[in-house]
Amino acid sequence: MTTSVSNDVEVISVQSSTEVARASAKPEVYRIRHTLASRFLVLTVCVAIVLSALAYGTVHYWALSVFNLGALTILCLWVVDGWSIGQLRISKNPLQLPLLGAVLLGILQLLPVRAAADSGLGISLSQSLSLDPNATRLVIVQFVSLFVYFAAVLVFIDTPRRLHLMVRTIMIFGFILAMFGLTQSFTSPTKVYWIRELNQSTAFGPFINRHHFAGYMELTLALPLGLLFAGSVDREKKLLYLFLAGMMGVALFMTTSRGGVISLFAEVLFFVVVTAFWRKDNERTGRRQSRIRRAAVRLGLGAALVIGLVIGVAMIGGGDLPLNRLVDSVNTNDPTTGRAHFWSVTVNMIKAHPVLGTGLGAFGVIYTRFDTRNGMLRLEQAHNDYLQVLSDGGLVGAFLALAFVALLFARAFYRMRTRDPFRRGVALASLGGCLAVLVHSFFDFTLHTTANALLFLVLAALATLNGRVEIVPRRRKRRRSTAIIEDKAVEQPDLNDAVVKVI
């Protein structure tokens, strides 16, 4: 018995598991049609990854407007693609649900559910649950745009070729960005693009905040580094991948971001532990390596990498100057450089609004009400994303964030079980980059920079893509831009998260 379901691009006929077992000798054929609109859509995502970083990390209103315009362009191309093939494709990946939940939470916080209170200055306070409705509206728009990019990657990165394209785009751009940041740090360390002088922050590369540049490097260097640890790189390309990861690691160290350095160590340790103890598919070689021996080798490689980065920083930075700055940034009177006070005030804010929070994006306005000092300091972020999620979204927001992280790790580890070495390496590398940013979020607010949030979601999508990207393409005939693809990587790719047709 066969049932008609919708694959990623076109309606196909899929056999039941019983029929597949009986006819295992005959591989299934999957039809994937790439329209011109879908090609431009993938190009738009790649361009957005690049431009969002170059536009000061997309933290200004003009850059956010361009970023939102890109999301609108993707939606238009998505509709055109659906019109061309006769169906609108959406992904069933459950990782989208927490993001939609965050948007719904923001909308709920905007509802006028309480009576307006007088501030004592003749100004009525907001009637909505959000104490800063304007900021909440901006955050909702940003979340919707990020969700569009994320959902588009889940749907349209649907072949091995497109997966390779996305991975290479991120790696090459990460290397170029690292070289640009290093060059600028030597020639004009206090200016962005050698033009814009900053008074209240320390820039690095095109980013206004050096910590956010470090967060971006954590994401980009994870791909070449993770692919190396996973053994997914050809022997003749290993030195190239190591060079790419090394230069991005040096750029990260040169930012002197303690949170960035700690996150890099966590990233390397994650790769060491996972690749040392995961079960490899040794059917081809017929050999089984000792897990202890493999763990020792991976640990040695990780230690050698860290030592090499430190030596590289010392050489490129002129002696041990960058390392001295890294150590000197720790204040003996307050090692947290004020974060301990920020966190204690944030905890009081959480206690006052425990369930639904103060409103998405409302932290900067509400902070002064709870500040136990003179109340003159306006702090835009809590320098701890976990506390700020609780402050802005309450327990509901925390549950959504926890659900996203739990689903990310569960789905990514499941994808690592594939027999396709490149797919396994991408899943490992992408999850490692996301882990590094999650560690960094204990000390900073890197995900509040749109460029970092976009790349984080792109890597989350790459880590959890279904079995479509594991199929080895072989073109048999071409009719109206239709490519016939035969499965060689697995007997039957996992299409549980395949896109579905919306009539």
What is the radius of gyration?
24 Å
- Report strand %: 5-15%
Average pLDDT, all residues: 80
**Biggest beta sheet attributes:** 2 strands, antiparallel
Shape: globular
Helix-strand makeup class: mainly alpha
Helical element count?
16
Low-confidence stretches: 1-30, 118-124, 281-287, 473-492
What's the SSE pattern? EEHEHHEHHHEEHHHHHHHHHHEE
How far do the termini sit from each other?
Answer: 24 Å
How many β-strands, per DSSP? 8
Query: From the structure provided, what is the oligomeric state, counting identical versus distinct chains?
Result: single chain
Range of helix content: 55-70%
Strand order of the largest sheet: 1-2
Describe the structure.
The chain has 503 residues and is mainly alpha-helical. The protein contains 16 helices and eight strands. It has helices at residues 17-22, 36-54, 61-85, 96-109, 133-156, 160-187, 210-229, 238-254, 258-277, 291-316, 321-328, 339-352, 363-370, 385-415, 421-440, 450-464; strands at residues 2-6, 11-15, 29-33, 88-90, 191-192, 196-197, 482-486, 500-502. Strands 1-2 form a two-stranded antiparallel ribbon. Strands 3-7 form a two-stranded antiparallel ribbon. A two-stranded antiparallel ribbon has the order 4-8. Helix 6 (160-187) crosses helix 8. The protein is globular and about 65 Å long.
Summarize the structure.
The protein has about 500 residues and is mainly alpha-helical. The protein has helices spanning about 15-20, 35-55, 60-85, 95-110, 135-155, 160-185, 210-230, 240-255, 260-275, 290-315, 320-330, 340-350, 365-370, 385-415, 420-440, 450-465; strands spanning about 1-5, 10-15, 30-35, 90, 190, 195, 480-485, 500.
